[in-house]
Fold:
Amino acid sequence: MGLKVYIDGKLIDKEDAKISVFDHGFLYGDGVFEGIRAYNGKVFKMKEHLDRLWHSAAAIELTVPISKEQFSAAIEATLKDNNLRDSYIRAIVTRGIGSLGLNPWTCKGASVVIITDSIKLYPQEYYEKGLSVITVSTVRNHPNALDPRIKSLNYLNNILAKIEGLNAGVEEAIMLNCQGYVAECTGDNIFIVDRGRIVTPPTSAGILEGITRDVVMELAASRGVAAEERNLTRYDLFTADECFLTGTAAELIPVVKIDGRILGNGKPGPITMQLLQDFRKLTTG
Structure:
């Protein structure tokens, strides 16, 4: 049996899963989504992800056509039907079918799509030896233009930065905001370790407030490691004791080189590796 995709209340074979070309999610990137993980048959941080999905939808005046309880049940049912215990889940709400104009009110109703499948962004060796990343020229969207806290279907800003990174031969890239401060990576939040405490950019720097980011800050607190949100510059990155990235798909992954500069001793640091161990224990233990 092949995978099935949930579309508006129905489970449809992956090969037949389609949306209309007149859906404004396709035409204009008008919609929102969440990336969620399931470990050992349990969806990780379901409430937090659905809360963020609803916040994103509210920010663009998009009404989710089902309740959070119904959405949660639909995710569980899709996982069960696909017989998946460890999975990546893509939960999507599009504006729906409308006219060729920008007017979203021509759309008669939003559509809900749930995809469950496997995902593996990075080889295991990167978790053991660390990533090499670069800062790129593509500036993170200005919050007054498109607030990065909205997890929208329009990811072109991130994709352009990703292209820069790939063309430079690295797997991930760091984006700065219009003021020159560190924002986030193309698909992950970023942390540094500075004199025994972990530091990450605030939401005001133009970042998505990551679910994994929050979990890692909680794990750090439980170990007595101080966590701080403040603006960071490239100087802070270059002089950091350690660096790591967090995200639903990436989980927690160390960084050992930025813009060709080796961080610390060129190996994942002790705080990073302890937090990675704690995160894996939390999700799979």
User: Anything to note?
Assistant: Residues 100 and 113 are 21 Å apart (CA to CA). Helices lie at 24-28, 46-59, 68-81, 124-129, 156-167, 211-222, 234-238, 270-284. The chain has two domains: 4-117, 124-284.
